[in-house]
Amino acid sequence: MKNVMDLQKMMKAAKEMQDRLQQELAALRVEGSSGGGMVSLVLDGHKALQSIRIEPEVADKNEVEMLQDLIVAAFNDAAAKVDEALAQKLGGLGGGLKIPGLF
């Protein structure tokens, strides 16, 4: 019976830790940029786009493809930073394991 109680305590603690991590990820803000800061955006810890800033100089209708590339590059930069922040948060928990879908 004691093992069942211990297991229940462990499950409750794991759930609380998961809930706390989800809250931290929702609150996390990471900026990525490209083109020397011409395009920058902010992602939360779930990699949801929160904001984007585009300098007027790159909003040329004749350079739409370049602007699209800059946005993709800025997003990828921010996404890599989210992964890095998550790895730091979880580093002690996972013992350095690479968990699929998280890193």
Uncertain stretches: none
CATH level-four homologous superfamily name = Nucleoid-associated protein YbaB-like domain
Q: Helix count, per DSSP?
A: 2
Largest beta-sheet details: 3 strands, antiparallel
For the biggest β-sheet, the strand order reads 1-2-3
How would you spell out the order of helices and strands? HEEEH
Structural class: alpha+beta
By DSSP, the count of extended strands is 3
Tell me the CATH topology. Answer: Ybab, Chain: A
* Content of β-strand: 15-25%
Distance between the termini: 38 Å
User: What kind of oligomer do you see?
Assistant: single chain
Q: Using the coordinates above, name the CATH class.
A: Alpha Beta
**Mean pLDDT over the residues:** 87
Roughly how much helix do the residues carry, as a percent range?
A: 55-70%
